[in-house]
Write a structure and sequence with these properties.
Length: about 375
């Protein structure tokens, strides 16, 4: 392998670690649980150490280093964490970490082998944090020890909700535009489709979240009854949970006994550890989920619809397609936050798929319009 290929690879490795460190610092700053925030800070320090390792390799080859700066993708994720909280992006980070955990496999440097073990540990930890909607103090303490020794997705729903609104209403207005020359009819159909689609999304989200909340409340109630009637069995289950996470049996039993003695917080601990439920959140607010879904769908639907407010005929159709293409490209770019693919590829793919759907419905609308005429 040539020096230039090594330099390119080292820069890619360095940037990945810079992005990871910046993300973990943002998670630490936004996290309300002190123990979990401290874990994120340690992960950030680990990533910074990795970045320094690749910088040393580059300096050894006489390469000048630019200042450390997160990519636009990492910067966007950081903004989302600060605006909506860690849980909004944790599932996406967990998915990316899992994919990146093997990024160093096959690289010949000794640094790569050492960093690979750390990255796999990071992936396990973040995956658990995402799955539990925040870790309890006991779980965090256990995971911190493992790291020292060895080292629901809201974002996805937001992007796909806006995409549903854009593609479905674009297809609807193009179908109606193909069947009629009346911009008024297209606008009415589009507004009706927007309200129907957004309302359906909102109702579906409300039912889903509310049903989950009721289920979680029932499970927590059952757990409280079990603590009251059979605390010894619950202590044994808690010890087994900690054993499954890697603690020695004696240490797991000691921790379970200590936690069971704290009557004020044991229900909270068992709900998080045994049921995977955050008692403070219970899956989130059903009304907040419904309102958010409504506006995300409506936001996407506005792109193809608003040109018909100001224009008519083929002019409105062309402007609607152009504006929708911009919206589709933005959504495709947003999807790369989860997939890590190139912005140009994902954006153009989204545009092509959306325009094909619109062309099909326009063609069907034209055939129906001609038949009726």
């Amino acid at each position: 392998m040539s020096d230039q290929q090594d330099i390119t690879r080292y820069f890619e490795n360095r940037q990945k670690e810079i992005d990871g460190a910046a993300l973990y610092r943002a998670l630490a700053d936004s996290e309300k649980q002190p123990q979990l925030a401290e874990v994120y800070r340690k992960l950030a320090a680990s990533e910074e150490k990795h970045a320094a390792g690749w910088e040393k390799k580059l300096q050894g080859l006489g390469v000048a280093l630019p200042p450390r700066k997160p990519t636009w993708r990492a910067a966007t994720m950081i903004w989302l964490a600060k605006r909506f909280g860690p849980q909004f992006i944790l599932p996406t980070i967990a998915s990316n970490e899992k994919a990146d955990s093997r990024a160093y496999d096959g690289q010949p440097e000794s640094e790569a082998a050492n960093f690979a073990a750390d990255e796999k540990s990071h992936a396990r930890l973040i995956s658990m944090a995402a799955g539990q909607s925040g870790l309890s103090g006991g779980s965090v303490a256990q995971l911190e020890g493992r790291h020292r020794a060895s080292g629901g997705n809201a974002l996805r729903a937001a992007v796909l909700g806006a995409n549903d609104g854009l593609v479905s209403i674009l297809s609807l207005v193009m179908g109606v535009a193909g069947a009629t020359n009346s911009g008024h009819d297209v606008l009415i159909a589009g507004i009706a489709g927007l309200l129907a689609g957004a309302g359906s999304m909102a109702l579906g989200e409300w039912l889903s979240v509310q049903s989950s909340r009721e289920l979680y409340e029932k499970q927590i109630k059952i757990e409280a009854e079990e603590i009251a009637t059979n605390p010894q069995e619950e202590q044994e289950e808690l010890a087994l949970i900690y054993q499954s996470k890697g603690l020695p049996e004696a240490r797991a039993r000691e921790m379970a006994s200590h936690l069971m003695a704290d009557k004020s917080s044991i229900l909270d601990t068992l709900a998080r550890e045994e049921l995977g439920i955050d008692p403070d959140e219970l899956g989130g607010s059903a009304y907040e989920a419904a309102i958010t879904s409504f506006f995300l769908f409506a936001l996407g639907a506005i792109f193809p619809l608003f040109p018909f407010i100001f224009w008519a005929g083929t002019t409105a159709i062309y402007i609607s397609l152009a504006v929708s293409a911009v919206g589709l490209f933005i959504i495709g770019a947003a999807i790369t936050l989860m997939t890590g693919r190139g912005v140009l590829f994902s954006g153009l793919r989204q545009v092509v798929v959306g325009i094909i759907a619109a062309a099909l419905t326009f063609g069907v609308g034209r055939l129906i319009g001609v038949s009726i005429s």
